[in-house]
Structures are given as C-alpha cells and as structure tokens.
C-alpha cells in the first residue's frame, strides 16, 4: 500500500486518494479541429514507462485537491509529490 504525502494535508494512506492518470497532458488548443484519430490519441493514449512516471492524484476523502506524484512504476516508490502549479521534477516522464 502506498503512503502519499498530500501537499496540503500531509501523509495519508492511499485509500484516501483516487488515481487520475498521467500528469502534464495538455488539452488541445483547438479540439474542434482535431481529426477523430487525433482526438482518440488525446483521450486514450498515454505513456506507460518503466521507471519514474508523473501521475495525477486527488485527495478525495480529504481536501479534494489535485496534485502530482512522481512514482517509480517498477518499485512503486514515491519519488516526489508536488502541486499542479509547480514544475515537473527532473528525470520524470
């Protein structure tokens, strides 16, 4: 089980959170101009690396705020936790 350190509430058990997918995925500037293939790629295709990976999490039973976590996908070790307004740490995808 993961122990995630919410930037606002502090460390809590992973059961208080919900996973939100890959972090730093930009919304298309002109979504109406996308082809069906481009829209499908935006919605459904995400990176699946081995190693450090930036993810979005929400503290659903606490402050209900979103934040980012860099987690090693092979060991589940949490490498960094940061607010969405903070820059992505070096070495994460």
Q: Choose one word for the global shape.
A: globular
Structural class: mainly beta
Span between termini = 23 Å
Strand content: 25-35%
The helix/strand order is EEEHEEE
Helical proportion? under 10%
Q: If strands are numbered along the chain, what order do they take across the biggest sheet?
A: 3-4-5-6
Instruction: Give the radius of gyration.
Output: 15 Å
Fold and architecture overview:
The protein is mostly beta strands and 93 residues long. It has one helix and six strands. The protein has one helix at 36-44; strands at 3-6, 10-13, 18-22, 52-58, 66-72, 78-82. The chain has a four-stranded antiparallel sheet with strand order 3-4-5-6, with no helix packed on it. It has a two-stranded antiparallel sheet with strand order 1-2. A hairpin with a 3-residue loop joins strand 1 and strand 2.
Labels describing this entry:
93 residues, 10% helix, globular
Write a brief caption for the model.
By secondary structure, the protein is mainly beta. The chain has 1 helix and 6 strands; from the N terminus they run βββαβββ. It has a 4-stranded antiparallel β-sheet, with no helix packed on it.
């Amino acid at each position: 089980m993961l122990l995630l350190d919410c930037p606002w509430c502090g460390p809590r058990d992973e059961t208080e959170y919900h996973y939100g997918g890959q972090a730093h995925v930009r919304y298309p500037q002109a979504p109406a101009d996308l082809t069906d293939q481009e829209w499908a790629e935006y919605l459904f295709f995400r990176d699946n690396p081995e190693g450090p990976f930036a993810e979005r999490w929400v503290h659903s039973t606490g402050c209900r705020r979103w934040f980012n976590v860099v987690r090693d996908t092979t060991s589940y070790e949490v490498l960094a936790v940061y607010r969405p307004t903070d820059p992505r740490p070096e070495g994460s995808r």
